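Contributing new records

If you add data, match the layout below exactly. Sequence lines come first and carry their own label; structure lines follow with theirs. Keep one chain per record. Anything else will be rejected by the validation script.
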Amino acid sequence: MADSSGTADTASDVAADVAAVDDAAVDAAGDVSPAGWQVKLAVTTGVSLLYSQGIARLSSGWAFSAKSGLWRTDDAFQQLVEVINPLPQALLDQGYGHIGDIDAAGGKLYGALEQSDFTLGKQAVAWFDPQTLVFIGSQDLPQHENPCICIDETTLIAYTPDHYHGTEIRRYDVKNGWAPLPSLLLSRQLDAMQGLDVADGALWFSCDDAVHGLYRADLVTGETLQVGTIGRLNQTGTTLPEVEGIDASHTAGGFLHTLTNEPLQATSWVDEFTVTGP
């Protein structure tokens, strides 16, 4: 997803990117180790360039999203199911032509839906059958933007950024009709938030910022720090590959699983990272 504001970086955007670099020393291999954290690339796999927005671990295999498509694969990323234009016309008529990052919880696959008039203070979430990828239902959300969403499997609390660049993470009680809960405020601004997942007492973010950063935010305090980088910067330091969604789940490949679009290579990449911390 491009910068959803549709504008060039502002001075505050640049300052935030500098702060991200200051959080940790990035070596030539792209490894970051702040305050005892170690995030190491373990496995990288090329997948279809169509998988361009989100990634989620299912009970068996993986799910991927694009602005107007959903896919399910096996554990080795071999495609099993494809559904193009999975949203009903009623949602499309409201401008919801964009499915962002996705997450699986409680036997459903959830996708962040976004319409482009951010002044309305209205976005939505949809849910699908995780096996057939058929649309089941949706819910309006009282927020400005909605690039990504995740649901805590234990509490069934949903988390989603109110803005693509920002500090406020909106929370909703899924089991109580998506009733709004007090927001979680991050201790620092994150920019170009593309992916979000919840696991091990924290939120985990993939950001298409200047360092293609991986970030962790404590669920209780909101303390936020950069723990790693996805890398894939070109030699001049610009971010031609675009960071997309993230999944946080313990698998044989690692703990953090990210999706990066690289049109010049005609592929998307699933990068899987091991994570250790204090």
